[in-house]
From TrEMBL:
Highest taxon above the source species: Eukaryota
Source organism of this protein record: Streblomastix strix
Biological-process GO terms, alphabetical: endocytosis; endosomal transport
Protein name stated in the entry: EH domain-containing protein
Cellular component GO terms, alphabetical: cytoplasm; plasma membrane
């Protein structure tokens, strides 16, 4: 178990329960700044020294996707409907790990670099602490202006840039290694769209910048923050699944237009067969949509 964060440590490392639950792992000791902030958050959000599940909504102010927050909760609570003080402290560190752009694994916790979690809507505890931090992966206004200037030179005013042109500009114009370009495009353009929007190009240039600063990139677009995925837009939509869904929607629309009118040849079988057709097509569409959907895991903050 995680040692009491409020206790004074004389060793350089402490231990906590493993993510797998069958062994222990090491992590750096809690700094006084961490303890002070986490205790304030727990005091504001918790009840009787614990953090109940119904208070988990406060964690959404981190901006992380719900799937990632659920994973953090699962790894911290170990099946309970509340977090103890120690477990709440661990959850805060796991949030920071994701915001730093690292994976949720034992190694990330072992090498944890303490910093306050970033909340989109500042909490009272953050207002009361002198420690301030800025998300290193956020696109600043200055960076956005620089990226737009670069894109204007490449796009020549067009709303889109071909993937080939992007590759040529990055490798020949900016000297980015081909392996890095391939890594970034696999994240930002996983379905190999032949044209890339200006907003998508902004994210690509920003990931190049992060890579050059030594910040670890996510393994896929599913780990990008919502602010990045919204810019990438259609680049993250599987064209084959979208086409299949469109065809199914068209079938449902056609079936719903079947007109059953009173006539000498009218009989109940006509209504039954038409209704069954609509029902079957609707079921097929629903199944296809569910099987073809992509579950986004997180809110990844690159570092």
């Amino acid at each position: 178990m995680i040692p009491n964060p409020g206790q004074t440590k004389t060793t350089t490392e402490t231990t906590s329960q493993s993510f797998t639950g069958d062994q222990t792992l090491k992590q750096p000791p809690y700094k006084q700044e961490e303890i002070h902030l986490y205790e304030q958050l727990l005091s504001s959000w918790g009840q009787n020294g614990t953090f109940p599940a119904q208070s988990a909504q406060y964690l959404q102010s981190t901006g992380l996707p719900k799937e990632i927050l659920k994973e953090i909760w699962s790894r911290s609570a170990h099946g309970k409907t509340y977090l103890t003080k120690d477990e709440f402290f661990l959850a805060m560190r796991l949030i920071v790990i994701v915001q730093q752009g690292k994976l949720l694994n034992e190694q990330s916790l072992i090498n944890f670099v303490p910093q306050p979690p970033v909340f989109n809507q500042p909490t009272q505890a953050q207002h009361n602490t002198p420690t301030k931090t800025q998300d290193p992966t956020k696109i600043t206004q200055q960076e956005l202006q620089e990226y737009n200037n670069e894109i204007l030179k490449v796009s020549l005013g067009m709303p889109f840039v071909s993937e080939k042109k992007v590759v040529d500009y990055l490798t020949k114009g900016k000297g980015v290694p081909e392996a890095v370009v391939s890594e970034i495009l696999s994240i930002c353009n996983p379905y190999h769209s032949i044209r890339i929007s200006k907003d998508g190009f902004v994210v690509i240039l920003h990931l190049v910048s992060l890579k050059r600063r030594g910040i670890q990139l996510p393994p896929s677009h599913q780990y990008l923050p919502p602010s990045f995925t919204s810019l990438l837009g259609e680049l993250l939509i599987d064209p084959f699944i979208e086409k299949e869904n469109e065809e199914n929607r068209s079938l449902v629309s056609q079936a719903s237009q079947i007109s059953i009118t009173q006539s000498p040849n009218y009989n109940m079988n006509t209504i039954t067969e038409s209704s069954a057709l609509i029902s079957i097509i609707t079921d097929i569409t629903a199944t296809s949509t569910i099987s073809g959907s992509t579950t986004q895991i997180i809110g990844y903050q690159c570092r």
